[in-house]
Write a structure and sequence with these properties.
single chain; 17 strands; about 15% helix; about 30% strand
């Protein structure tokens, strides 16, 4: 602490008197502290202890940790990556972190546009962070976690809404409608759950096999077929994909096992224009809610 003196313009005898008064006051304060049994210790080379600074309340009995309680973790987003407005930040730890609150103190998320958000944990080895609402479009974000850092960008707000009342998908970019496409969603007993899904992997071609979720291909409801332009929107296997066999139902009725069937042309357009982290909002189905357990979709349905 540095205090301006202003004694340079005073006569020598008055400066001496001031010094004597200060020494007496200091001795009196020291005596008072000693009588109370209080010991104050300043680090070597530190400024004088008085007056007190603006320390946090309770810091003497509950000091903040000085080091993270975890090794440098991994972050799901790479430097320079561009993602959609529903993309959560996922931090994976090498070892379990039982004290979640202590760990959160060493994780910092900053953005170029205001985006209040919150942490939520998936066990002791993974914490996620997302804004309370979708990210603002075209926002720069930096996340720092115990020695690991990533700076990425949120792109345009590319939001798709699939409405089972109309059997249509309406797509907006930064609030302006850019495309609509007919769809056929989950039929009876296979209804597509409602909720906010998130675009994940995108596959030019893939094999869809009902046996991967317990339905043999020989079952009347079984299947194994190659599909094109498949964009995953849930870990449980819901895709937006080309389904030329159901074009007659698209826009009219539901015929899939839960996926969003669209024409080959529309599936190609969707894959080429969407990106990881874009939201797909499904409404008005009879399939209940996707809930929080699905890895991709669970982030927005708590």
């Amino acid at each position: 602490m540095h205090v301006a003196s202003h004694t340079g313009s005073l006569p020598a005898h008055r400066r001496g008197a001031q010094l004597t008064r200060r020494l007496r006051a200091g001795a009196l304060l020291s005596a008072t502290i000693a009588a109370a049994g209080v010991l104050l210790v300043a680090p070597a080379g530190a400024d004088p202890l008085f007056p007190f600074g603006s320390g946090s309340a309770g810091s003497a009995t509950d000091p903040a940790p000085q080091q993270p309680n975890f090794a440098p973790p991994s972050i799901n987003l790479a430097d320079g990556e561009v993602v959609g407005v529903a993309q959560p930040i996922i931090i994976n730890f090498k070892d379990p972190v039982p004290d979640h609150g202590a760990a959160e103190k060493f994780i910092k998320v900053t953005s170029s546009k205001d985006a209040p958000g919150h942490f939520y944990w998936r066990g002791d080895k993974q914490v996620r962070w997302r804004p309370n609402e979708f990210w603002p479009d075209n926002t720069d974000v930096t996340v720092e976690a115990g020695g690991t850092r990533s700076a990425f960008k949120i792109g345009d707000a590319f939001v798709s809404t699939a409405d089972d009342n109309t059997h249509m998908i309406t797509i907006t970019r930064n609030g302006e409608e850019v495309k609509t496409m007919p769809t056929s969603m989950g039929k009876t007993k296979h209804e597509t759950p409602n909720g906010t899904y998130v675009v994940g992997e995108q596959l030019r071609k893939m094999i869809m096999d009902s046996s991967t979720y317990g339905v043999p291909t020989t079952d009347p409801e079984g299947y194994k077929l190659e599909v094109e332009y498949a964009t995953r929107i849930s870990n449980s296997g819901i895709f937006v994909h080309a389904a030329p066999w159901s074009v007659g139902q698209q826009g009219n009725s539901n015929s899939s096992h839960g996926c969003l069937n669209v024409s080959t042309e529309n599936a190609k357009w969707f894959m080429e224009n969407s990106r990881k982290g874009d939201p797909v909002v499904i409404v008005n189905t009879k399939g209940g809610s996707i809930g929080t357990s699905d890895g991709l979709a669970g982030d927005w349905n708590d």
